[in-house]
Design brief:
alpha+beta
Length: about 80
Amino acid sequence: MHKASIGLSIAAFAGIVGLALTRPAESQIQVAPSYLPIGAAASGSGSTAWFHHPPSGRVVACQATPGAGGAPASLQCVDAKLP
């Protein structure tokens, strides 16, 4: 191998390492569910699901009613603070 190609190889390697070390670190998003599912029920053509947010003590209930072709026509949610 020629000295020039060895020098070029070392320079290219050093450049790649330099780019890797100077590239800003990307932050990682910590993903955790904030509302935990606690139950679901279906009756007739509607269904309801309940969720709990432990840090705030809030509960959310969402009810879906079907529309034409079985697709959800509406989704209504209410929330309340637990004592």
